Amino acid sequence: MPQLCLYFQLHQPLRLNGYDVFDLSNSSRYFDLEPDQHNAEIFRKVAAKSYLPMLRLLLELIGRHSDFCLALSCSGVFLEQAQQYRPDVIELLKQLAATGRVEFLAETYYHSLSSLFSETEFKTQIRLHSQAVHEYFGQTPTIFRNTELVYANQIGWLIAKLGFQGMLTEAVPRYLGDRPKTRLFRSYTEPSIPLLLKHAELSDDVAFRFSNRGWPGYPLTADKYLDWVNIYPADQLVNLFMDFETFGEHQWADTGIFAFFAEFVDRCVAQSWNTFVTPGQVCTPFYQHGRARPELLELPVYDVPDPISWADVDRDLTAWIDNPLQQDSIRQLYGLQDAIVRTGDMRLITDWRRLQISDHFYYMCTKWAADGDVHAYFSPYPSPYEAYRRYSIVLTDLFDRAGVTPTSGQPLY
Amino acid sequence: MVLVPIYCQLPLVHFPEYDGLDENFVRIYVMDSHRVFMIGWEYPPLNSGGLGVACQGLTEALAADGGLIYFTLPYQLPSSVSHMRVLACRHPAWDEPADAPPFSAYRSVGRDSTQPAPSRHRFSPDTMAAGLPGSQLEQQVAEYAQVVTQRARQYSDFDVIHAHDWMSLPAAQQVKALSNRPMVAHVHSTEHDRIPHGHGSRYIIDAERRGLAAADYVIAVSNYTKRLLVHKYGLDPARVRVVHNGIHPLQEPAEPGRHHFAHRRPVVVFMGRMTVQKGPDYFLRLAAALVKKQPNILLVMAGSGDMYHQLLLSAAGQNLSTSVLFSGFVRDRQRQVLLDRADVLVMPSVSEPFGLVALEAAQRHTPVIVSKSSGVSEVLPAAVQLDFWDIDAMVDSIISLLNDPGQAAHQARSQLNQLDSLSWHKAAQLVKRIYHQALQKRK
């Protein structure tokens, strides 16, 4: 049986309220954040369906099996909302952290795409996030996962320079070739960093296909899934990365997803000892006293010249930066950086960072077919055009507050 | 040297018999009230645009003068109207709810003029593939005519038939044949306006031709429209009378100024359906040129329409996301606030029979720039009048209005003065005069 590395992502965006042109310079409330408003309602709904039952299940499994472990990553905006709207979610996360068998990963506090547009902002948000993880859970993350597993050589290099000891990303065939994704790779950079590649097929069997009656694998049982995992021998590493909301929200409780997961873990543990590993356990052997050991360079190289992600069939950035609506929104937003940061006005800076949440751009995606359906499922707006329309009005107010006159100047990249 | 467009050299109203229209004249010749069988298509609050508003203004003024009006609609009005008798003429085959207006007469036909014109023959591949809504509309108009004609039998005590735009013309022709009463066709817009450059629906143009030919008199909402009717529909100019729309005085005073929103930026507004006819794409070109010259200008586009998505993409594609904002469709209070706030309103229509929004903006003390291809320019000569395609001239004009408060205030004042002479009462007098002539001719 291969080693299994589980990582689940916890994130909830802040959705814009109905801010319209008549609010310009009259109000700077872009998000409804009160406990009785939109974002809180969604958070509590997802908490009831997914966060609370799944966190309890994880606690139970950790209690039952002394060799079960996994990794979680919580965006900063998730932690803020949990603290405000459902503190019991934070409580459960803290209990999990206290078991010592849940590794919390680093990411950008605002679940942003800053890695692509601003090195300083990227670093700042990682720092803010690591501080938050330390405050909440008493851990200092050593492994980094970027928003939506966005990765390119350049990002690997930055993360390595920041002292992280591993990073998660997607196995994309155009860069992986026919090599197995069940090995540990390293970045094509100097300094280099270990890379864990998501096993898309096995991850998506659970995350996307579990309740799909039209899928030949339906119904997916723990036995069947175990057989598929067992194809890989003991020296291989299967990385199962997915949204935490897979459990109870994307796949509702009545699909049997919770029972499936519990049984799968039970069966794995029964079959062999120490099946489960965390990213840190996999990567830290390549470091000694904070410095990379020579063995790191013996790992196979994963060379990714252009950014990839775990989204859509394309596994690229087109979910967020494809059409002009997305491109100009992002260009204008990051173009404000210097003016906003210079003000030192924390309310303004926070609003600017909240507008960096990648979901804003995801909602503007105009791709068709199956991917479009996924985008529409997650979007609070009736259309990508409406998402853009509202966003552009808020952005205009932000320019006003920063005292910046819009320009049609600098290029995006 | 300033070039004066040809229509400015013409008197505002062509027909000498209208000059010196005074109370005495009205009393002697027009005072006898008529019973009118009026065939409509839309009416507020369920209206898609200016047609419904004009029908309301005109019928209220006619009724105030003692006229008796039957007014047909293809749907049930949600609120009651006291000044006339509204006849809901729904065909039993229609399955929409009774109060669902078939606005598609104005909406569905808009299309991109840069695309080649599809063949609109009834059984052409284009029509078969994509033309179902069009053919449904044609059928609906024909069915409406049937029901209206039945109703005309019930309410047969009318003197004159008055039909508004092409959707009502087939009905008017049938009622005329049935009743042998004179028919007046009122043209608020033509297919040549809605879809410029000859790409319009053959079917609709034919319906307009037949209906206008059958009318005893044709009322055009402007000289601009009259010229179009003469040149494109071959009407005898003597049969076409111009009656400009009126405008209701404001109930509450306007509140012009920058206190409403976006206090620190000059605001230039487009308000109208986002279709080829209204020139929103020219407004966007204007926006790009304006922002290059004066980057702090904020442009707001209000409305929706078949070009909406294309305009959003184009604005973003030109990096105008924080310079051009889309307010969506605005009504009532928001509409007023936007017009109050606007430092300049631009109406760059490719072809605009009238253009009520220019008058509304003028009422709210907002300097207006209107396309020369518009009817409203005839009654609001104080507005800046430019070719809709002349981006450079528009830029200069806007920059100068924005940066010279004296000039803007002067223009706003002159516009207000010109509004004084526009009223629905006056329009109703002219219409009654036309009824009178039509009846005289019959005798």
Describe this entry's structure for a reader.
The complex is a heterodimer of chains A (413) and B (443). With 413 residues, chain A is α/β, with parallel strands linked by helices. Chain A has helices at 38-64, 76-85, 87-98, 114-117, 119-137, 153-161, 173-176, 200-207, 222-229, 257-271, 279-283, 324-335, 337-343, 346-354, 359-362, 369-378, 384-402, and strands at residues 3-10, 70-74, 102-104, 144-145, 167-170, 185-187, 194-198, 237-243, 247-248, 251-252, 276-277, 287-288, 291-292, 301-302. Chain A has two domains: 3-302, Alpha-Beta Barrel (7-stranded beta/alpha barrel); 324-402. Chain A is 44% helix and 12% strand. In chain A, α1 (38-64) packs parallel to α10, α2 (76-85) packs across α3 (87-98) and α9 (222-229) crosses α10 (257-271). The radius of gyration of chain A is 21 Å and the shape is globular. The mean pLDDT of chain A is 95. Chain B contains 18 helices and 13 strands. Chain B has helices at residues 6-9, 23-30, 50-64, 104-107, 125-130, 132-154, 165-179, 191-194, 202-214, 223-233, 280-293, 308-317, 332-341, 356-363, 376-379, 391-403, 405-419, 424-442; strands spanning 35-39, 68-73, 85-88, 160-164, 183-187, 217-220, 240-242, 267-271, 298-302, 324-328, 344-347, 368-371, 384-386. The N and C termini of chain B lie far apart (52 Å). The A-B interface holds A 20-26, 323-325, 327-329, 331-332, 385, 388-389, 392-393, 395-396, 399-400, 405-409 and B 260-265, 288, 291-292, 295-296, 298, 300, 308-309, 312-314, 316-323, 325-328, 334, 337-338.
